């Protein structure tokens, strides 16, 4: 698929239609109605052999159609799967590599990602890497400078920008204590675009969502070609922000969170020009988190307040996933909430919340109360082009080493998505599916 013409208006219309692949589904697949039910399937149980343990991070689908994921903790590895039971190790790193936070596909078809720690180096603040799924191997593109012996910058996963470069965040270092937004080229040249200051009109500390490891949440590419994210601090009340940053580094604070609803956010996702996100806490008496909508004029509306007694979910930690039906899908691991209820859920842009699956085992201490069922969902849901949603649990499964699962939502159909949801006139977008 190639963008045509030179008029910005034509590209703008195309960009809006292709935003995050949602409209591509409408163009290339049958209309997907709202699901009335869903089917959950455990497709693979990690064995524990050869460090097959602790799956972590969102899946990514490569141009070859396979899903790629990562295992982390000491011996990180990259693996591929068809999502239906296959498992193949593609790269197995040395001891002390912590690289399991999700990857993104570059315009060259390779996978790009970050590692928080590299080869047990206490002075390692992480790396940016390239992995070629067609046999080109694993390449370190950039090593972050060391600081504070044994401390990491808590790098986010990377987001592919409209210029073919990658964008990410750090949660802080010796020089930039409140975190940064950076750009890195496919060749490994890194530029710091913005250093957060924690001052009025700026954010501080890109959001981690309260996740198990504390790495920053990835940025979202908007239909306007800009990038969107959240911080856990800064803003008018010191409670976090929703912000926009251009590829050249201009930051605009779109909303300052309040003390009654502090961010501790999970990033934002765009649907039809509005931003949708979650707060890990806040939302009234239960204080178990919220789902919110933010309009372009800066109006924030709370769409849902989590209540474990009603929702089988609480304390959201993972980013929302935009489905090809223009609805948002989430996973609640409920780790911080005292090992509480877990579920997979959907919310419409209008705020209708549906619990799709809540039969996960309850996490205990690095285990589940029923080893045959997975627990502690450990990654955002990922919708493959077959229409199914895939994810992993950190613990549980038949071998108590974690599991891979599939969620089939009624009405979901196969679709294609552009590799680049936003592009310049004449630029090749690429097609997955």
Give the topology.
Elements lengths: L7 H11 L3 H7 L9 E8 L9 E7 L5 E5 L5 E5 L6 E5 L11 E2 L5 E5 L11 E6 L4 E7 L15 E2 L5 E5 L9 E5 L5 E6 L7 E4 L13 E2 L5 E8 L6 E5 L5 E6 L8 E7 L2 E6 L10 E5 L5 E6 L2 H4 L9 E2 L5 E5 L10 E5 L5 E5 L17 E3 L4 E2 L5 E7 L7 E7 L7 E2 L12 E2 L1
Antiparallel strand pairs: 1-30, 2-3, 3-4, 4-5, 6-7, 7-8, 8-9, 10-11, 11-12, 12-13, 14-16, 15-16, 16-17, 17-18, 19-20, 20-21, 21-22, 23-24, 24-25, 25-26, 27-29, 28-29, 29-30, 31-32
Describe this structure in words.
The structure is a single chain. The chain is mainly beta and 433 residues long. It is built from three helices and 32 strands. The protein has helices spanning 8-18, 22-28, 308-311, and strands at 38-45, 55-61, 67-71, 77-81, 88-92, 104-105, 111-115, 127-132, 137-143, 159-160, 166-170, 180-184, 190-195, 203-206, 220-221, 227-234, 241-245, 251-256, 265-271, 274-279, 290-294, 300-305, 321-322, 328-332, 343-347, 353-357, 375-377, 382-383, 389-395, 403-409, 417-418, 431-432. The strands form eight sheets. Strands 1, 27, 28, 29 and 30 form a five-stranded antiparallel beta sheet that branches. The chain is globular. It starts with 7 loop residues before the first helix and ends with a strand.
